[in-house]
Write a structure and sequence with these properties.
Radius of gyration: 15 Å
Strand order of the largest sheet: 1-2
Number of strands: 2
Largest sheet: 2 strands, parallel
Structural class: mainly alpha
Distance between the termini: 35 Å
Helix content: 40-55%
Shape: globular
Strand content: 5-15%
């Protein structure tokens, strides 16, 4: 699970099953590891509006909020993002 005790505590307090909590913590740990290796300038997000991408956006949002709370000097830094418009999008996405 997440290596930071504060983040781990927040995940455990979510109203979901332990399996879901562990998966979230694992995913956030992977994202934090990528940020620590490559920095915010070295990561990017490609988004097409699908379910998997939407989940990743939410996980990345949680991770970045946590990371920036630990590194306030990076608050104004942004990550590169690319939106790939599907040929037949759901109306909710557009």
């Amino acid at each position: 699970m997440a290596s930071d005790p504060f983040l781990y505590h927040r995940i455990l307090n979510l109203d979901h099953s332990l399996v879901v909590k562990k998966n979230w913590a694992d995913a956030i740990s992977i994202l934090l590891n990528a940020i620590s290796i490559y920095g915010l300038d070295g990561i990017s997000l490609s988004f097409n509006g699908g379910k998997d991408c939407t989940v990743l956006v939410h996980l990345l949002y949680l991770t970045l909020n946590y990371y920036i709370s630990q590194h306030p000097n990076l608050k104004s830094q942004r990550i590169k993002t690319l939106y790939v418009a599907p040929s037949n999008p759901f109306p909710e996405v557009e």
